[in-house]
Design goal:
- The structure is a single chain.
- With about 800 residues, this protein is an alpha/beta fold.
- The chain is built from 29 helices and 32 strands.
- Helix 1 runs antiparallel to helix 12, helix 18 packs across helix 19 and helix 20 runs parallel beside helix 22.
């Protein structure tokens, strides 16, 4: 489903990309989003602002001139005086943004014509006119005498965009034929400063009725705080302007007085103000003089750049995660604006970015809506999966303990229909020899196989749950009697005992089952589950193969065990353990030659607790290593105390538990204890049971060799119960065998037991091993063993286990206290 979702998103993303690219082609022309493009142009325009040229000045008919020279219009004789005055100062060219279309009077017209001829560098204005709305456009030319006297004619046509602002100029325009250069271009031509076409195409563009324009460009407005230099008309005429302010300058003459002349809105107009037409012409002329006019991007460049920006930006949005898509869109928008600004500043080309700026957020919005829908769908799916996972085991898919407890709560609503409900709790484990080879993946596979087997053999209507690890639960409703329950449990156990096959290997299963019955063992779900767990735990402790039903006695036993575990945790801290010693004597002389250290526990609340009770608990809780180390250190300390009391050297025998024997720290712990208390290695004997050695033979032999390398003697305890063979016994690096007391007690009463004892004695002689019989309680047993060459005896016949103080008295000495700190 996930792959399908990715594939679907990929298809939608591809279609969205194609759609936006096609939209880029469609909307790329600047006219599609003209007002937005004009706004962006005004925003970006300052990046290209050229400095206003000092070659350009405007002689302005301003308010001061009107006040000094009288109301407008003035006599052309006065304009002739201005031309003469300018001629005296030697400008490069003069351009009048004033129309002289009609005769004023012959004398004034003649004076101006004569002045124009004397100057020889004056350009007069030509403009289009439309006398009536919708009517034909006419051409406003200077009267013939003035036109002939002028050096050139130039048009002052200005095109306004849809927002009423002037941003464009045309190199040429005219009625039916674009023969008139712009006023600024004509002035440059007169001054001999031609610059070609400035990179602007002069393809004709028809506008209106018969008025034709060519060579469209964009006005390179200077900064708003860098306007053209103005000289007052009256000041120039009166000689109040220095000649160098005009010499070699391009001089424009125009009206800027309030209420007179033409004013136009431009991108550089101040707030609520408009720019005089002559200043607009000055900005055009400034761009031409510096050869920095702006031009529109070609249609091809506009299309290609729009499509490239839309495509690249959309790809970024599609490829990045949803949380980054917005930032990718902003980056694409910034790139688009940056590209437009860079082209304008570096190449003097205006790329209209509005189409890309509209399509990029649109693409992001559409993709986000789609992804949000996908994410919402995935979220719903994940929530369903999460809800399923919170109620089911992730590996087996079985309902978990929470769901089981919900089912158990429903039992309280069940009416007294005479049937029983039973909750079975199963713990299934595999032999350690196999489990050590299993990694987590294999373990998960086995759990799934186990769950499938349980699902197959469970009776119809059974509710199955996976509690944790390898613990399962089976809830059976409508059970008629206990016999029926036992049959069902036996079927389940028999099926679960069958080995699982994994990679051509059999994994042997060991199931344990406990059960609690509703309503006798509990009327609420938690009690029923707790009691079933208790019964299962008892089944494990006792190694039962069948179903163990909960009973009050079982609950009490486990409650006592729990108390024992809690008390055991603090026993060492509270010095509750004691070490007693049982002498080991020479079988012939009965002289004490060694002792066995035996741990005892006296709890202030529970009283004396037998090792048979607390040692299994210590092994189960993992405390056995700590307790074993305490025994080892205490035995070494007491052995040193006996030596320091002047008593003859003894051999100290210390028992090792199976967990302690397999610990990696064993050798270090033994060596450290002997070093701290100054115990010679030949005074120390470590005992390990035969079953411990046989359960892990290779590791056991390795550990025994390491201990023997220290000079420590080793003994096999409870020999005869572990079924070791003669060949395996030969591989044990041991010094002594201890015959289990169960055989010693039967000497003279059981021929089999007596035969086993004799066999052990014979085997030990052939292997050169010493033998000690433990549990000797009668003189007859001692005599039998002495007669058959058993070397050492141990048992109640000679002494019970006694504290070290009594042992010292038995040996005929007095103890002094020895601590770890006093031993060097």
């Amino acid at each position: 489903m996930r792959l399908r979702g990715h594939y679907r998103s990929g298809v939608v993303g591809g279609l969205l990309l194609v759609m936006l690219v096609l939209a880029g082609f469609l909307f790329a022309p600047p006219q599609r989003f003209e007002r937005l493009n004009l706004f962006l142009y005004d925003l970006i325009l300052p990046v290209q602002s050229p400095a206003m040229s000092d070659q350009l000045v405007i002689v302005t008919v301003d308010d001061a001139s009107i006040a000094e020279l009288g109301r407008w219009p003035w006599s052309r004789a006065r304009h002739a005086q201005l031309v003469d005055r300018l001629t005296e100062h030697g400008p490069q060219a003069i351009g009048f943004d004033i129309l002289f279309t009609e005769s004023q009077d012959d004398r004034s017209d003649g004076l101006l014509a004569t002045a124009l001829e004397r100057n020889g560098r004056t350009v007069l204005a030509v403009a289009p006119a439309q006398p009536s709305p919708g009517g034909p456009i006419s051409e406003l030319l200077p009267m013939p005498d003035l036109a002939i006297s002028a050096a050139a004619l130039g048009h002052v046509d200005a095109e306004l965009d849809v927002d009423g602002q002037s941003r464009q100029f045309f190199l040429y325009a005219g009625l039916d034929d674009p023969r008139w250069p712009g006023l600024g271009l004509a002035m440059m031509n007169v001054a001999g400063a031609e610059r070609g076409q400035f990179g602007i195409s002069v393809a004709a563009k028809t506008q209106g009725l018969g008025w034709i324009r060519a060579g469209r460009g964009l006005i390179p407005y200077a900064a708003i705080n860098d306007p053209p230099k103005r000289l007052s008309y009256a000041d120039v005429l009166a000689g109040r302007v220095a000649a160098n302010a005009i010499r070699d300058k391009f001089v424009l003459v125009g009206v800027v007085a309030t209420g007179l002349g033409d004013v136009i809105s431009t991108p550089v107009s101040r707030l609520h103000e408009r720019t005089p037409g002559v200043e607009v012409i000055a900005h055009v002329l400034n761009g031409l003089l510096q050869n920095v006019p702006l031009r529109h991007a070609s249609a091809e460049l506009q299309f290609l750049l729009s499509v490239a920006l839309v495509a690249s930006g959309t790809l970024m949005v599609l490829l990045l995660p949803l949380r980054l898509g917005f930032f990718a869109m902003l980056a694409a928008v910034a790139l688009t604006l940056g590209s437009s600004a860079a082209l304008l500043a570096l190449e003097r080309i205006w790329f209209a970015p509005a189409a890309a700026l509209v399509l990029l957020p649109l693409g992001w919005a559409l993709w986000s809506v789609w992804l949000y829908g996908i994410e919402e769908s995935r979220t719903r799916l994940l929530m369903r999966r999460l809800e399923h996972q919170t109620r089911h085991h992730i590996i087996t898919g079985f309902p978990n303990q929470g769901v089981l407890e919900g089912q158990l709560c429903k039992l309280g609503d069940k009416g007294p229909d005479g049937t029983l409900a039973v909750l079975l709790v199963l713990k299934v484990s595999w032999h350690e020899s196999a489990s050590v080879l299993l990694n987590r993946t294999v373990g998960d596979q086995l759990l799934r196989m186990l769950a499938e087997r349980l699902r197959t053999v469970a009776p119809e209507g059974a509710f199955l749950a996976h509690l944790n690890g390898d613990d399962f639960a089976v809830l059976l409703n409508n059970q008629l009697n206990f016999e029926h329950i036992n049959d069902t449990a036996a079927t389940l156990l028999e099926a679960l005992k069958q080995p699982l096959m994994h990679e051509n290997s059999e994994i042997m299963l060991v199931p344990h089952m406990g059960g609690s019955v509703w309503p006798t063992d509990g009327r609420d779900g938690s009690a029923l589950l707790r009691n079933a767990y208790t019964a299962m735990f008892q089944s494990r402790l006792e190694g039962l193969e069948g179903l163990c039903f909960y009973s009050a006695d079982i609950g009490k036993k486990l409650e006592v065990r729990a108390q024992l575990e809690q008390a055991l945790v603090h026993a060492l801290q509270r010095d509750e353990f004691l070490l007693y010693y049982q002498p080991q004597v020479d079988a012939i002389t009965h002289q004490i030659i060694g002792v066995e250290a035996l741990i005892r526990w006296k709890n202030p609340e529970l009283g004396w607790i037998s090792p048979a009770e607390f040692i299994p608990v210590a092994e189960h809780t993992g405390l056995i290593n700590v307790i074993g180390n305490w025994v080892l250190e205490t035995a070494c300390r007491d052995l040193t105390r006996l030596k320091d009391a002047g008593l003859r050297p003894l051999r100290m025998a210390v028992n090792l538990s199976p967990l302690q024997f397999t610990s990696s720290d064993l050798v270090f712990s033994v060596q450290d204890a002997m070093r701290r208390f100054g115990v010679p290695p030949d005074r120390m004997e470590l005992e390990v049971t035969e079953s411990t050695v046989m359960n892990n033979l290779d590791n056991a032999v390795k550990a025994m060799h390491e201990l023997r390398a220290l000079g420590i003697e080793l003994a096999i305890d409870d020999f005869g119960t572990g079924y070791s063979s003669l060949s395996s016994l030969r591989s044990f690096p041991v010094d002594r065998l201890k015959i289990d007391q169960s055989f010693i007690r039967e000497i003279g009463h059981s021929d089999a037991a007596t035969g086993i004892v004799l066999t052990i004695l014979s085997m030990a002689r052939r292997l050169g091993l010493g033998v000690i019989a433990e549990g000797v309680e009668t003189a007859e047993q001692a005599e039998f063993l002495r007669k058959h060459e058993c070397e050492e005896l141990q048992g109640y016949l000679f002494s019970r286990p006694i504290p070290v103080e009594e042992l010292a008295q038995l040996l005929g000495g007095t103890l002094i206290d020895v601590t770890a700190e006093s031993v060097v």
